[in-house]
Design goal:
Number of strands: 0
Radius of gyration: 19 Å
Strand content: under 5%
Number of helices: 10
Largest sheet: none
Distance between the termini: 41 Å
Order of helices and strands: HHHHHHHHHH
Length: about 200
């Protein structure tokens, strides 16, 4: 990458830190194909590769305010990607009773129904966002949406008022929608579904 292009990337990262969606789009368009080819050579699955590319850019968007425009963005991107590949392959190796190779894992994934795959994608996508929330909002959301407790039960468990629970849930759903909205432009699967569910 020449100096001119490197300076452009720094400017885009600076704009991204401010929440500039166009800067995010430019960075996505610039790097997503390179990331795709890099990931695919390790995971050997189109579906898994697409998921990991999406996850990298979701994390970039969620952590945009912490980015350092003075550091090399390309290196950051590929370090994040490499770590996700390692994590993905480690989890893949544990699946299906730790049998032979990842190719067997692909066969299992292929035999899953569309609904099974969509549900797993939805859960992983949402987990990324929830983990970025303040601890209290995380706990309230999990108790409400995953454990099925009502506002009064959550209030008693956490020692807070029912109104505080209600307000935190409302703020959490608002945060999730705001974080997902820009990603609609890049046609990342399940974002539309997620917004409808919320």
């Amino acid at each position: 990458m020449d100096d001119f292009k490197q300076d452009n990337v720094k400017l885009l990262v600076l704009e991204l830190k401010k929440g500039n969606e166009k800067a995010f789009q430019f960075l996505y368009e610039r790097y997503h194909v390179k990331l795709y080819h890099y990931i695919f050579q390790y995971v050997k699955s189109v579906h898994a590769t697409e998921e990991l590319v999406q996850e990298v850019f979701i994390k970039i968007w969620l952590k945009r305010e912490k980015l350092n425009e003075k550091k090399d963005f390309t290196s950051l991107l590929f370090v994040m990607t490499r770590n996700m590949i390692y994590d993905f392959l480690r989890k893949a190796a544990l699946m299906d009773s730790l049998r032979k190779t990842y190719s067997e894992f692909k066969i299992i994934k292929h035999n899953e129904t569309s609904d099974d795959i969509q549900t797993k994608e939805y859960e992983r996508f949402l987990d990324i966002i929830i983990k970025e929330l303040p601890v209290q909002k995380q706990r309230i959301y999990i108790l409400s949406r995953r454990e099925g407790k009502n506002n009064q039960e959550i209030a008693e468990i956490l020692g807070i008022s029912s109104k505080t629970v209600k307000n935190n849930l409302w703020e959490t759903l608002k945060i999730i929608k705001e974080q997902l909205q820009p990603l609609l432009e890049f046609k990342i699967p399940l974002v539309t579904l997620l917004l409808e569910v919320l």
